[in-house]
Amino acid sequence: MTDYILIQGIIFGFFLALPVGPVGVLCVQRTLAEGRLHGLLSGLGAAFGDALFGAIAAFGISAVKDWLEAHQDDLRIVGGVVLLFLAIRTVFGKSSHISKRQTRGENENRVVTHSLVKDFFSTFMLAVTNPITLIAFAGLLATLGITEAGASVGNASILVLGVFAGSAAWWLAISTTAGILRPFVDGSYQIWMNRVSAIILFGFGVYALLSGFGLTQTIYDVFR
Question: Residue 160: which residues within 8 A CB-CB, separation 6 or more?
Answer without folding.
Answer: 9, 51, 54, 55, 58
